[in-house]
Write a structure and sequence with these properties.
The complex is a heterodimer of chains A (741) and B (228).
Chain A (H helix, E strand, L loop, with lengths): L1 E6 L9 H9 L3 E6 L16 E5 L9 H15 L9 H8 L4 H12 L1 H21 L4 H11 L3 E4 L10 H11 L3 E3 L6 H4 L9 E4 L2 H9 L8 E3 L6 H5 L6 H8 L7 E5 L9 H13 L4 H4 L2 E5 L5 H6 L8 E3 L11 H13 L1 E6 L4 H7 L4 E4 L14 H6 L5 E4 L2 H13 L1 H15 L10 H13 L9 H17 L12 H6 L1 H14 L3 H4 L6 E4 L8 E4 L2 H7 L2 H4 L1 H9 L7 E4 L5 H9 L7 E4 L3 H13 L6 E4 L8 E3 L8 E3 L2 H7 L7 E4 L5 H6 L2 H5 L5 E5 L2 H13 L2 E6 L3 E6 H6 L1
Parallel strand pairs in A: 1-2, 1-4, 2-3, 4-5, 5-6, 6-7, 8-9, 8-11, 9-10, 11-12, 12-13, 16-17, 16-21, 17-18, 21-22
Antiparallel strand pairs in A: 14-15, 19-20, 22-24, 23-24
Helix pairs in contact in A: 1-20, 2-5, 4-5, 6-7, 16-19, 18-19, 27-28
Chain B lengths: L4 H19 L2 E2 L2 E5 L8 E4 L2 H8 L1 H4 L1 H9 L7 E4 L5 H9 L8 E4 L3 H13 L6 E4 L2 E2 L4 E3 L2 E4 L1 H7 L7 E4 L4 H6 L2 H5 L5 E4 L9 H7 L2 E3 L5 E4 L2
Parallel strand pairs in B: 4-5, 4-10, 5-6, 7-9, 10-11
Antiparallel strand pairs in B: 1-2, 2-3, 8-9, 11-13, 12-13
The chains are: A alpha/beta (741), B alpha/beta (228).
Chain lengths: 741, 228
């Protein structure tokens, strides 16, 4: 007999290695097929001539592949809207993650309107299951792969988990090719907090009556197709023996062997994110306990296998007699069962076991240890609100000693530590119902193998689709195509992204823009996009630039006006208040501020144009010069009055410089740079008294040829001489300074 | 269903807010949103959802301010909005006049970040001339301070031919400082009403200042009107 065993990834094999080995030992050929590519290395226990390993065909090759994954995920998500999941908010959120936007979110919205929910959720579920029925098996790739393997029976695991939606097509293919197919759940919680089976296989092999009820009630599998086999994954664990004595074990972990041990089993990230803080709190509670025995107990923390490293590297030095159990306690090993051995010894030496919601608690029960839990509000979504946690509470009298807070938990622990045997009975009863329903001493693996052999031997006919199905399929496909249903060709987690890119949004946006804001797009100035460095070698100065023009010209102003830079270096850098009139983006004001480190005198930058003023402020902030440079958004003129040059809509308050200095307490300038595109003469006229003041030493004035003569004359009248003349600028120095030189 | 109605409605609201943000049209520097106010369309630019929502509900959060605009501020009257922020309220005031009348809103705002938004919003709403931005820092003293160059409102009105205010909306953080610099302005009988912003840092001395200058508490919260 040839068995084709489909599994998601090779690490899933650890729960099935006993079954696979037993099948091979009984003379069957087992072909393991994993989704992953590359080198697949089997553990030593499975090195067997009749066990083959290889990749499986991943997904469909036909057009339906665009729609199947979304379809199946939506059906999965919908299941969490059932009343029994009303508390399982965290599971619901996880199921709705990455569901394509309009459908997933619309369902959630519907859900919140109670009366709509009862109407729509079953309707949508019906619709989705109808669509699922319309999806044919995939001849091109999946069926071809099955035919090539020529199996007598197909095993699929887990089928229901997110990411294994493609396995549904294998079940469909098996039906169409007339090959018996069985589904094996991977773990204890698979049937409640994962997805749905969607297509009913020929046989579902489950652990116990609880899982059978779920398969029938939740997944709609007929009674006679479900077989209770026991939990095959624990058979090896039952057979294990401790590898160490308590003394040796305590020595490895540097714990005190004279004290009783309590182990804490961490749960997965989903159940309890940031469990570490809680564990610290738990340890503190135990160390504060009134009971002397409990207070001095050795505490072992067993991290969840994915996070061993983070927990081992964390700092636990504040506690005494506490150890984190490393994964490789007995040395590195290639074999997965080696990790189980560490767990076995950990549990074996413990007097009591504590955890939130993890499968290792079942292993503790197998060793007849009393198992405790605390209901933690913060982890409720992964603990009390999940359905599978209630197995621990209800199955055959329940397994857990539950405490609502750490104080009561410590009281319960005291009782367990003092009399572990009294509590063992509870664990045994749970195991009898949940793990070995056939009897505590009967292994489950032979039962699974027996079921598989019986299934392979039973005759099965190929399924022939009814005519109406075949006729309807192309129509459904074209409908999905035209709806662009699923959108999940490449990336299912697009969610909002698709919506944001979608036509609907474009349409709404363009409608809105047309309706309300036709002119606004052009009316708004471009935002600064990046910052460029000023080409002044000595200092790091940046300005915001949003156009090529600014990048090219403003950033290069120092090299375009070397005389201005020289003037700044020679005169302004020495100190004294500096007025930069017509500052634009503030290149020279900021340069001056950077040149005169240590001088606290103000630099005042005048810039009347609003957009430039805002950019000037931005640049001042960008260069961290706010304490040295003050920006003033006022135009200067020959007389103080309302300036309506820019039209009556945008009046501005024009000041004479004299008035600002005299009435508004501006410090008197020592240097002025004046660059105002033709307004120079009127500004100078408004600054007559400031110019006459002895404290003003130098000026740099832009002089277009038209105003060059009048400006020079005016300045001479105020006691300045033109020291240097450049292309467009003139540098004026106070006369007496020259005389004294 | 164990979730309370509030929680359910909260979920729906958050969902709708996401949708709202996604469908807003884009403009340079952000998105374009509309004020939640039935009587006129006021648009404004926003960078992020939280801020956008806060602005959108500005009118709803301060119903008394909106009623003051509707009932007390006439079409030909001049409103000074001191501390105009991004200008949604100033624009609302301008739009309520609906193009008629000679009234203007003078929006005083000295923070360059807010000022930039204010200018954009004026352009978006095509309210140039109706809302006049004044980028000056008003205070009780003169000269350079941390925020920039400070001016007294009295000085500005004495120096320039600015339209005299009939109404003042005062939302600048340091109300009393602004008022002390506007002593004469507030004594003028042409000034009819003053609405104070509901900021936490409303100064204790403000009511005394206004009472001294002939104002009495008006029919709306924080509104002061001149006694006839």
């Amino acid at each position: 007999m040839k068995v084709l065993f489909m599994m998601h990834t090779i690490n899933r094999l650890r729960n099935f290695d006993g079954v696979v080995r037993a099948l091979a030992d009984r003379g069957h050929t087992v072909r393991l097929a994993f989704l992953q590519k590359g080198e697949l290395k089997l553990p030593e226990s499975l090195q067997h001539p009749r066990i083959e390993v290889g990749a499986s065909a991943k997904g469909r090759a036909d057009e339906w592949r665009r729609y199947t994954r979304s379809l199946r995920r939506m059906a999965d998500a919908l299941r969490y809207l059932r009343p029994m999941y009303r508390r399982a908010g965290k599971l619901r959120d996880r199921a709705f993650e990455g569901i394509d936007f309009p459908f997933g979110q619309a369902i959630v919205v519907l859900y919140y309107f109670g009366w709509l929910r009862f109407l729509f959720v079953p309707l949508i579920a019906r619709l989705l299951s109808f669509l699922e029925r319309m999806v044919p098996s995939d001849e091109l790739r999946i069926n071809a792969f099955i035919r090539e393997q020529k199996p007598d029976v197909i095993l699929v695991s887990p089928l229901v988990q997110r990411g294994s939606e493609y396995q549904v097509d294998y079940v469909k293919g098996a039906h169409d090719l007339g090959i018996p197919v069985a589904v094996l759940p991977f773990s204890w919680d698979n049937l409640t907090n994962k997805g749905l089976m969607r297509v009913i296989p020929d046989r579902v092999l489950v652990w116990n009556q609880t899982q059978k009820d779920e398969a029938v009630g939740l997944h709609g599998v007929p009674h006679d197709r479900v077989s209770i086999c026991g939990a095959w994954r624990f058979d090896q664990f039952f057979a294990m023996k401790p590898r160490t004595t308590k003394e040796e074990f305590c020595r490895l972990l540097t714990l005190d062997p004279a004290r009783p041990l309590i182990s804490y089993l961490c749960s997965s990230e989903f159940t309890s994110a940031n469990e570490m803080d809680f564990v610290r709190e738990w340890i503190r509670a135990i160390r504060r306990s009134p009971d002397a025995v409990l207070r001095s107990c050795g505490l072992m923390i067993r991290p969840y296998p994915d996070h061993v490293r983070a927990w081992s590297e964390a700092d636990w030095s504040e506690f005494k007699n506490v150890a984190v159990v490393p994964g490789a306690l007995f040395g590195q090993s290639r074999d997965a069962s080696w990790g189980d051995q560490v767990l076995y010894d950990t549990l074996h030496h413990s007097s009591a076991v504590v955890g939130l919601n993890t499968s290792a608690m079942i292993e503790a029960a197998i060793l007849s240890k009393p198992v405790h839990t605390i209901l933690v509000k913060q982890f409720r979504g992964g603990q009390a609100d999940t359905l599978h946690f209630h197995y621990f509470l209800n199955v055959n009298g329940g397994l857990l000693s539950v405490a609502k807070d750490l104080k009561r938990h410590c009281e319960q622990l005291v009782r367990s530590v003092n009399a572990p045997a009294a509590r063992a009975e509870k664990s045994d009863r749970f195991i009898e119902a949940f793990v070995r329903p056939q009897g505590l001493d009967r292994e489950s693996t032979p039962r699974v193998v027996e079921e598989i052999e019986r299934l392979a031997a039973s005759p099965k006919e190929s399924r022939v689709a009814p005519a109406w199905e075949t006729a309807l399929r192309p129509r459904v496909l074209s409908a999905l195509r035209s709806l662009n249903f699923g959108f999940g060709r490449m990336n299912l987690s697009m969610g909002w992204g698709w919506f944001a890119k979608g036509k609907l949004v474009d349409w709404v946006r363009s409608y809105w823009r047309r309706r309300y804001a036709t002119a606004s797009g052009g009316a708004l100035a471009q935002r600064p996009t990046d910052k460029v460095r000023l080409d002044y070698p000595g200092k790091e100065i940046y300005i915001c630039a949003n156009s090529d023009q600014e990048r090219r010209w403003q950033a290069r102003s120092p090299s375009k006006e070397p005389w201005t830079v020289r003037w700044l270096e020679q005169h302004v850098a020495e100190g004294g208040v500096f007025y930069d009139i017509g500052s634009r983006l503030g290149v020279f004001a900021i340069l001056a501020a950077k040149l005169r480190n240590g001088h606290s005198q103000k630099i005042i930058a005048f810039e009347p144009r609003m957009p430039s003023f805002i950019r000037l402020c931005e640049n001042i902030r960008l260069n961290d010069c706010a304490k040295k440079v003050m920006a003033v958004p006022l135009p200067l003129a020959s007389k103080t009055a309302l300036n309506q040059d820019a039209g009556p809509e945008a009046p501005s308050l024009a000041f004479r410089l004299d008035e600002l200095v005299e009435k508004h307490d501006l410090p008197k300038p020592a240097h002025i740079r004046l660059d105002c595109a033709g307004q120079e003469l009127s500004i100078l006229e408004g600054a007559a008294r400031t110019l006459s003041d002895e404290s003003l030493k130098t000026m740099l004035v832009e002089m277009s040829p038209a105003v060059s003569g009048p400006v020079t004359d005016y300045m001479r009248g105020k006691g300045f001489i033109l020291a240097e003349k450049f292309e467009k600028h003139g540098i004026f120095l106070r006369d007496d300074r020259k005389a004294s030189a | 269903m164990t979730l309370g109605l509030d929680a359910r409605l909260g979920d729906v609201r958050r969902f709708l807010e996401k949708v709202w943000w996604h469908v807003l049209p884009e403009v340079p520097g952000g998105k374009l949103a509309k004020l939640r106010y039935a009587k006129s369309d006021v648009f404004y630019r926003v960078d992020n959802r939280a801020e956008g929502l806060r602005q959108a509900e500005a009118g709803l959060r301060e119903p008394s301010a909106v009623r003051w605009l509707e009932d007390h501020v006439g079409h030909d009257e001049v409103l000074y909005h001191i501390g105009a922020g991004v200008g949604t309220f100033a624009l609302l005031a301008a739009k309520l006049r609906n193009g008629s009348g000679q009234g203007r809103v003078l929006a005083f705002e000295s923070d360059p970040v807010l000022l930039e938004r204010l200018l954009d919003n004026i352009a978006i709403n095509r309210c140039a001339g109706k809302v006049v931005p004044v980028p000056l820092h008003l205070s009780s003293g003169r000269g350079p301070v941390r925020e920039g160059l400070a001016f007294r409102l009295d000085d500005l009105l004495a120096t320039f031919d600015l339209p005299r205010p009939q109404h003042v909306l005062l939302e600048a953080g340091r109300e009393l400082e602004v008022l002390e610099g506007a002593d004469r302005t507030f004594r003028e009988t042409s000034l009819k009403s003053v609405l104070l912003g509901g900021g936490r840092d409303a100064a204790a001395g403000t009511p005394g200042f206004l009472e001294e200058r002939g104002f009495r508490p008006g029919p709306l919260p924080r509104l002061w009107v001149r006694q006839a």
